[in-house]
Amino acid sequence: MSSTSFPFRIGLVREPSADPATATALAAELALPLISEASAPGLTHLLVLTSVRLELRELGSDAAGPVYVDFAAGAAAHRRRFGGGRNQPLARAVGVKGSNVPTVIDATAGLGRDAFILAVLGCTVRLVEREPIIAALLRDGLQRAVRAPDIGPLVSERLRLIVADGRTYLRELPESQRPDVVFLDPMYPPRRKAALSGKAMRLLRRLAGDDDDAPELLVAALACVRRRVVVKRPRLAPPLAGPPPGFKIVAPNTRFDVYPVNRPA
């Protein structure tokens, strides 16, 4: 994801009940100061390690709620149970049908929501995320999900996190590791104030930027994929710059642009 001009100043806080060794290792990995919450003046965000999970918190009067990854409860659990199974637009766009369960690289993994649903549907998914703090949140969510009795086996067997720039990762993939499908969900185009996206997405945009290099990622994906590239877009947004999609699957608020590729297995 591309850089942003927003001044993003962050420190890592360990709540008293959290493991000190884990906090120290995470601060070193992310090159963040390990601080107390009382020493937060001048910071815009806190990465908070609690006894339960890792959270990203925005500071200030108009702060978003905490951002964290939870595949076992909340929206992810509801979508897993009631999202429409193989009839939902995501499944049709990726090509999940009958015995056909493609291998997928989600090259803009973010918080992993679509990748998790693809795993529920049977796909093996590599989640590629280049922003280290977002990747840390995602890794924390995956680690906790592995311990959940109802979803632990599918998460451990079908989801793997890779911290890397998607463009570089796709370009350097050995032929034997090329996926059936590359899924791209670049940051949506900025909206006007009257239609701002949710506070969590606003926070992630400030951290990760606007994905101005998404057309380059599309080119890299088309060069390595075996069957198709799928790009998730707002329903009324233009397609990414580059070749036109072969077909589209349109949902009420979302559109999946599908780029079929015929390449021998």
What general outline do the C-alpha atoms trace? Answer: globular
Structural class: alpha/beta
Low-pLDDT residue intervals, each spanning 5 or more residues: 1-5, 192-196
Q: Span from first to last CA?
A: 30 Å
Strand tally is 11
Within the largest sheet, what's the order of strands?
A: 7-6-5-8-9-11-10
- Tally of alpha and pi helices: 9
Please bin the fraction of helical residues: 25-40%
Strand content is 15-25%
Largest sheet: 7 strands, mixed
Please state the CA-atom Rg, rounded to the nearest Å: 19 Å
- In sequence order, what are the helices and strands, one letter per element? EHEEEHHEHEHHEHEHHEEE
The chain-level mean pLDDT equals 88
Task: Characterise this structure.
- The protein has 265 residues and is of the alpha/beta class.
- The protein is 31% helix and 20% strand.
- It has nine helices and eleven strands.
- The protein has a seven-stranded mixed β-sheet, sandwiched between helices. A four-stranded mixed β-sheet has the order 2-1-3-4.
- The radius of gyration is 19 Å and the shape is globular.
Give a brief outline of the structure.
This protein has 265 residues and is an alpha/beta fold. It has 9 helices and 11 strands.
List the helices and strands and how they pair.
Elements lengths: L9 E5 L5 H11 L3 E2 L9 E5 L4 E5 L15 H9 L6 H6 L9 E3 L6 H8 L4 E5 L2 H15 L5 H7 E5 L2 H6 L9 E4 L14 H10 L5 H11 L3 E7 L12 E4 L3 E7 L5
Parallel strand pairs: 1-2, 1-3, 5-6, 5-8, 6-7, 8-9
Antiparallel strand pairs: 3-4, 9-11, 10-11
